[in-house]
What does this fold into?
Amino acid sequence: MPTSAPEPVLQVEGLSAGYGKIGVLKSVNLVVRPGEIVALLGPNGAGKSTLLKSISGLLPWSGAMRFAGRDMAGAQPRDCVEAGLVHVVEGHRVFTQLTVEDNVLLAGYGMPAAQRRVQVEEALDFFPEIKAKRRDKAATLSGGQQQMLAVAQGLVRKPKLLMLDEPSAGLSPVLVDRVLAAASQLRAAGTAVLLVEQLIEKSLAVADRAYAMVRGTVVLEAVASEPDLPERLERIYFGLDSQ
It folds into this structure.
């Protein structure tokens, strides 16, 4: 007897959102299941970052969304984090005048002290490059190391779902691979990852499934290993196809 697919950790149905009177997202449907990496792809301006901001409570939205079995209507960013939904925003957002260790400790604010210490060490273990610099100020890190630190901050709370917005931005190919390898490690540990990326081939290499967005709408959903998927995505990026 075939086994049914696991219950989604995140289920978005008919989600619409924007900025004031400017609509961006138009009835978006998306599913992420436990322990899988889902790539969210599309050209600049497609609405990918807006979707992540809506999911994490940074923007108001309409429609329906459930996370870990919970109705997320009206949820604020703190509610999302406490539920296990963590959003690492684009742009290496770290506190440059704090040490690496203090940045990660701050991300665990409000947790019991002993638990926070343990989970800080586990988060830093993903990135030995920055763990070795734990006493250094974040300002002394390279751009790639600051991105690793931003991801480590997201890992402190052991999220059920980690959303990464353009983690490769400004990184060398070697560091891109290092950050994406961390996503694969998370999947192996049972954490789901929703990955927004511009690097199609690298994203598909680590992802289980992929969605493509154009002008605020999901136009494609596919298994990442489909052999013709890069070509289909290329046609979507250049406006030659919509499915």
Q: What stands out?
A: The first helix runs from residue 48 to 55. The first strand starts at residue 10 and ends at 19. The chain has a mean pLDDT of 90.
